[in-house]
């Protein structure tokens, strides 16, 4: 018996919310060999999910990123008629509905009434902590944040964030499941809005908006700084390892050499974080000069093909 069989014991995975992220999760679990039932409150989105995943699998196959025919993976996907059908026979539910606390709370209340006593629930929430929508419910012990990056079938990291009521068994189960389906688990030890990933992203975005507002650089030059600079290393190492290698004596040496510069930059920040309408208009107009609104979808597909090529290159280069 492999790790997944031990965890899932022949049961299925329920995907609730099948938009951008939910459909990506369905692909992750089906690709790993699990039966997946998909439910979305919007029938148009639900009906579009499997054809979309099929198309993504064909592209993954073309990049050599799946180990069996796309059709065999698609055969493990099915649409559920409602929430009760989605969770019937499921060991794990990945919630990916809208990022609104009252909707997530209403779903948890429905699950409290419907779910078997052992269904484990992971939420894709980008920043709302689990206690905000599960607190006080009997199922709270079985609810944990499992926050992915979009699209989860191409970007492996998942942040596991328990609430004070989440049981250690739930954390252990979801961590093991995520590792077994090929994701890369990050443990966030305390509930904090935005978790780790979006807090790091927030710092970069805060500075990016401020640099445009202050006329320091254009949006394109800021994107270029990350695309052709910082991002090169970030695709295979993080900020701490980056600076550990950037001073002859390692990170402590780096802190001595450049600590005062970073302290001074932090002290000079005066942007109040209000993205004004004028600033948003300016950034929007600069971006539309490079990409028309009608071309966003096409560019998303281009991004995903780039990520597939990167995945293939990383796989080939892995030691
Ligand atoms: N888009 C991203 O980059 C990203 C990344 C990581 C996490 N997330 C998080 O994932 C979640 C989903 O985001 P998304 O970008 O996929 O949004 P989305 O709008 O593409 O999809 C949300 C889907 O949920 C469905 N839905 C709403 N209420 C429902 C309910 N009660 N039952 C079943 N379906 C319901 C909607 O019909 C919609 O199709 C959010 O919490 C979001 O913050 C998003």
Structure description:
The protein is α/β, with parallel strands linked by helices. It has two domains: 3-187, NAD(P)-binding Rossmann-like Domain (Rossmann fold, 3-Layer(aba) Sandwich); 197-317, N-(1-d-carboxylethyl)-l-norvaline Dehydrogenase, domain 2, CATH 1.10.1040. It contains 14 helices and eight strands. The protein has helices at 3-8, 20-31, 43-62, 70-74, 83-87, 101-114, 131-134, 168-180, 197-213, 219-234, 239-244, 251-268, 277-290, 296-317, and strands at residues 12-16, 36-39, 77-79, 90-95, 120-123, 143-148, 157-162, 184-187. An eight-stranded mixed sheet has the order 3-2-1-4-5-6-7-8. Helix 2 (20-31) packs across helix 3. The longest helix is centred in the C-terminal third of the chain and has 22 residues, at 296-317. It is globular, with a radius of gyration of 21 Å. The two termini are 27 Å apart. The relative contact order is 0.09. The model has no long low-confidence stretch (mean pLDDT 95). Bound molecules: nicotinamide-adenine-dinucleotide. Nicotinamide-adenine-dinucleotide binds at residues 16-22, 39-42, 45, 96-99, 103, 107, 124-126, 147-148, 150.
Fold topology:
Blueprint (H helix, E strand, L loop, with lengths): L2 H6 L3 E5 L3 H12 L4 E4 L3 H20 L7 H5 L2 E3 L3 H5 L2 E6 L5 H14 L5 E4 L7 H4 L8 E6 L8 E6 L5 H13 L3 E4 L9 H17 L5 H16 L4 H6 L6 H18 L8 H14 L5 H22 L2
Parallel strand pairs: 1-2, 1-4, 2-3, 4-5, 5-6, 7-8
Antiparallel strand pairs: 6-7
Helix pairs in contact: 2-3
Bound molecules: nicotinamide-adenine-dinucleotide.
